[in-house]
Amino acid sequence: MQALKERILKEGKNLGGGILKVDSFINHQVDPVLMDACGAELAKRFAHVGATRVLTAEISGIGPALMTARHLGVPVVYARKTKPITMPDTVYLTIAPSHTRGRPVELIVSPEYLASGERVLIIDDFLASGATILGLVRLTQAAGADVVGIGALIEKTFEGGRDALAFLNVPIVSLACIVSMVEGKIVFAP
């Protein structure tokens, strides 16, 4: 998606070590017009999978997941990183490493909002190693639901996440694929 790539080149910051800072339009401050366009594009690409829910991880995945769900006409559920007192005692919980936090985080979903038989489209801001998305897959499977697709705004292909998710045999779509972040540069797939 050209608009997303242009924004990454204009405002994204390569912090080294595979970290791409996109806080000014995705992760801290969110550009709703860009997120709506990204959501529309992801919804178009996944229209054929018959999703009944969109699932993401708190917090940076919420923007693209919400806009994708809006365009698909389905609810969005996000995995919480802490359990609020309003959540039931029995929950779906997994641990996933966090690239930006530098430590593992809990991902928690209430069974009230993710049920057996659901067709789940996982949407996140990044696809890097695939660890967070694999955590969301585990939550989906624990609920007895089916993963029908995986979408990301930005994929760092050099971290191998797509290969780690290939066993799911579902469509994987990224709107901007970065093939290299060496020497402070950001290089997209052709």
UniProtKB/TrEMBL annotation:
Pathway: Purine metabolism; XMP biosynthesis via salvage pathway; XMP from xanthine: step 1/1
Domain Phosphoribosyltransferase as annotated: residue spans: 60-156
Record-linked Pfam families: Pribosyltran (PF00156)
KW Acetylation (keyword) present: no
The reaction(s) this protein catalyses: XMP + diphosphate = xanthine + 5-phospho-alpha-D-ribose 1-diphosphate
InterPro entries: PRTase-like (IPR029057), PRTase_dom (IPR000836), Pur/Pyrimidine_PRTase (IPR050118), Xanthine_PRibTrfase (IPR010079)
Gene3D superfamilies the UniProt entry points to: 3.40.50.2020
GO molecular function, a single term: xanthine phosphoribosyltransferase activity
GO CC field: cytoplasm
Top-level division of the source organism's lineage: Bacteria
Endpoints of the signal sequence: none
Compartmental location: Cytoplasm
Alphabetized SUPFAM superfamilies for the sequence: PRTase-like
Class of this enzyme: transferase
Any single biological process term in GO: XMP salvage
Binding site for 5-phospho-alpha-D-ribose 1-diphosphate: A128, S129, G130, A131, T132
Function recorded in the entry: Converts the preformed base xanthine, a product of nucleic acid breakdown, to xanthosine 5'-monophosphate (XMP), so it can be reused for RNA or DNA synthesis.
Cross-referenced PANTHER family: HYPOXANTHINE/GUANINE PHOSPHORIBOSYLTRANSFERASE, XANTHINE PHOSPHORIBOSYLTRANSFERASE
Family: Belongs to the purine/pyrimidine phosphoribosyltransferase family. Xpt subfamily.
Assembly behavior: Homodimer.
UniProt protein name: Xanthine phosphoribosyltransferase
Species of origin: Bellilinea caldifistulae
